[in-house]
Amino acid sequence: MSQHPINIGGLVMNRLMGSIGDVVSQLKQRALSSMELCEAALQRQDSVARLHPFITCTSDVARESASLSQKRYGSGENRGPLDGIPVAVKDNFCTSGIQTTCGSVMLQNYVPTYSATVVKRLQKAGAVIVGKTNLDEFGMGSGTIDSTFGPSKNIYRSGIKYDLLLSNREPDGLDSRFPTAAVEDEDWYVAGGSSGGSAVSVASGSTFLALGSDTGGSVRNPASYCGVVGLKPSYGLVSRCGLISLVNSMDVPGLFGRYVDDVAAMLSVVSGLDPQDATTVPSDLQSLQLPENPSLEGLVIGIPKEYHCPGMKKEVIDTWTKVADLMENCGAQVREVSLPHTKYSIICYSVLNPCEVASNFTRYTGVFYGHRVESSHSMEAMYALTRSAGLNDVVKGRILAGNYFLLKENKNRYFKQALKVRRLISQDFDKVWSSGVDLLLTPVTLSTAVRYSEFNNVDNRTQQATQDFCTQAANMAGVPAVNIPISLNTEGLPISLQLMAPWGQDAALLSAAKWIEQHVNFPRLQVLE
Ligand code: GLN
Asked: Could you tell me the end-to-end alpha-carbon distance of the chain, in angstroms, rounded to an integer?
């Protein structure tokens, strides 16, 4: 398997890169204990710390949960489906008693008194929370370079030593076709964002699963750059209670894992009605198990022509065509379809996002939460000083833009028009589904991960909007979408594709994603440190 010396610690470390199913069976057979697994995860977290995936390491909480899990394995009683499995949580989900910062000065000392529903459900299923992950401030960004705690870096070509394994399930050797060495001059690749910390935590084996949030692509974008599976579930399938709001009508908790089956296991635990989130629906996915060998027979796959957008790299288009052909050769019917309003999605998002941001961010006044800058002049001055010091320029820019779009004299011209365009974007999807299409296959990002030096200019920082071209429409329509790693390019960086499905068809979406995963044989990264 790997060429580094095998010892007990090393064996546990390697298991960090297996699938949850494999690890749970090791735990059941007592070939491995929850405590060993937890320690290995914490150790890995330490060894990749220079990539900065985590804002907070929750080692005490993790050890406590792992020791309870170990007892449950000992007694064989009351075990949950994720018992003993290390999980990371994006730092915009409330965690009771654990600092929840949103990557912002505003909340850097905020310790919630309750946990998000998804966090509670993971803990009830036996998961071990190992840390809170880094993000662009409040989830605004596509790079995880705009956190007040500093950026997260992509693991690929970062200088962290890793092997690439030829086959995901039966490693029979190393894949030496691709470069793995650190790029020169430390000009690192971005992790993508805003859930870049979660993506890196999973890619590096610091955890098996991670929670992210996806408002316009924040789970799929970093999953694509980091070569992991990233699911944005149907809007309403997973509770937002305790997810700190960005754009309520588009936000969804998203799920990261290295294998599609792992993400399915996580979805079955976190999905379903929550009385504390009125937008949730009952779910029948509680015991979701994907078929061992999913089939494409009878499936109609749509290729939306408008997703061939300017700036998309040839290697991304080639990968897209290759996978479409592969699916066609294996029983699916593949046809070109049209989503004519796609070209308006970025501009429409750029109005709707700031409007909801402007409204949501009125709560950060220094009175109720976190940061406060005192003023001896007036209450208003205290608000202004607090907001000025507590929020970064991206957030402040969106608050200003949103308030402008919502001015009495502007509301009809911007906000209401954008809502109408959103409806057209959503209806495009409905028309495609009702023409008999089951799933859509598209790229996720226009290129592989970009270098920090290319990314970090003023225009890009506000949104990196072009990289979100293929992801934002799904949020506006509320449909589920998943990132699937496909291959590495000549630089050794992941290229991924996206599948989208009609609202509520998350299980069918994941089955097809698993089919792709099984047929493309993406080279698996295994950390050696
Ligand atoms: N990049 C988009 C933005 O900055 C999407 C962010 C997200 O999905 N949270 O708004």
From this structure: 15
The enclosing domain of 480 has a CATH number of 3.90.1300.10
Here the tokens at position 120 are: 């509670």
Domain-embedded: residue 422: no
Tens of each residue's pLDDT in the chain, 529 residues: 333 333 456 677 777 788 999 999 999 999 999 999 999 999 999 999 999 999 999 999 999 999 999 999 999 888 999 999 999 999 999 999 999 999 999 999 999 999 999 999 999 999 999 999 999 999 999 999 999 999 999 999 999 999 998 765 555 578 888 999 998 666 899 999 999 999 999 999 999 999 999 999 999 999 999 999 999 999 999 999 999 999 999 999 999 999 999 999 999 999 999 999 999 999 999 889 999 999 999 999 999 999 999 889 999 999 999 999 999 999 999 999 999 999 999 999 999 999 999 999 999 999 988 899 999 999 999 999 999 999 999 999 999 999 999 999 999 999 999 999 999 999 999 999 999 999 999 999 999 999 988 876 655 455 566 789 999 999 999 999 999 999 999 999 999 999 999 999 999 999 999 999 999 989 999 999 7
Sign of the alpha-carbon torsion through 89, 95, 99, 104? positive
The strand pairing partners of 174, in sequence order, are 165
Domain membership of residue 455 (yes or no) is yes
Q: 198 CB less than 6 Å from ligand 1?
A: no
Contact 152, 53 (CB under 8 A): yes
The distance of Cα 31 from the centroid of its chain, to the nearest Å, equals 31
Give the structural domain span for 216: 10-306+308-339+430-527
- CB of 246 closer than 6 A to ligand 1? yes
State the amino acid at position 369 in one-letter form.
Y
377 occurs within a structural domain = no
**Model-wide pTM > 0.85:** yes
Domain assignment of residue 19, yes or no: yes
CA dihedral 279, 352, 306, 477 (to 10 degrees): 10
Q: Which atom of ligand 1 is nearest to the CA of 218?
A: 8
Q: From the CB of 468, is ligand 1 less than 6 Å away?
A: yes
139 alpha carbon – ligand 1 mean position (Å)? 6
For ligand 1, atom 10, name the residue with the nearest CA. Answer: 140
What the block records as the tokens of 134 is 């880094």
Say if ligand 1 is within 6 A of residue 216 CB. Answer: yes
What one-character DSSP code corresponds to residue 19? -
User: Which residues are marked as active site?
Assistant: 90, 194, 218
Question: Per the structure, how many domains does the chain have?
Answer: 1
